[in-house]
Amino acid sequence: MFNGTYTALVTPFRNGKIDTQAFDKLIQGQIAGGVDGIVPVGTTGESPTLDHDEHIEVIRLAKEYSRDKLKVIAGTGANCTKEAIELTLAAEALGIDGTLQVAPYYNKPSQEGLYQHFAAIARATKLPIILYSIPGRCGIEISVETTLRLATDFKNVVCMKEAGGTPERVSALRQAGLPGNFTILSGDDSQTLPFMSVGAVGVISVASNLIPLEVSKMVRLFAQGDLDAARRLHERLYPAFKDLFIETNPVPIKAALAIKGLIAEEYRLPLVPMSAANRAKMVESLKKAGAL
Q1: Which of 87, 103, 116, 277 could potentially form a cystine with 138 if both were Cys, beta carbons 3.0 to 4.6 Å apart?
Q2: At 254, is the secondary structure helix, strand, or coil?
Q3: Is residue 123 pLDDT above 90, yes or no?
Q4: 88 close to 124: Cβ distance less than 8 angstroms
């Protein structure tokens, strides 16, 4: 079962290549920060701009650098089912703990198409699968009915990363009759506590790249029933949660990590550095939250 705090890792670059030294240091920081796992090569890891070999190499490095102290959930989704299967099987061979499968983007399949896409992946791998519904990026939502159908038909479909923006979706999933081991993780830092209040059990976090200790503490406090302490921590961190998305993810989080001296501020086109005004606003919010 996937619960707790998982960090959607950035992929640090230096001079156009993966910065392996910075990546190792980031992962050691995640271990020290008490997160439950890491998610390399998702959206935050700039997966669309990594070639096939780089994609697999980042997963391999994440597994190596985690030193079996963290769960590693590899982002191996694609809008081509064949490609998603190939990436997933390559990741499975590296001994990871699970796979994050985003809804196919741009081609906008029907719900039946979504079912068949994820079903083909589930048949091909023994890895636990986390479905990833993020309609703001993909243009489609993995419906509650499709989620139930997949989780009922395939024992390795065990979790949903929910980034639809409303606690109502979490409630609908919880009411759908999903298997008892099926869990829901927030896909949005600012929604973690609202989602947990109606049945989610953690988060796949962007902010925890920068503040792993604080995010993992907030999630643990809520899970342990200390709701007031969790809420107070959420309120302190909320400015950071909000303004780490002031521009397209992962531009702000990479800028923040660079300001802290953890990585080089380097992106791959079509992503570009933040505007000066947004950078200043983000820095102010991060300082207010105690994140810088």
Answers
A1: 103
A2: helix
A3: yes
A4: yes
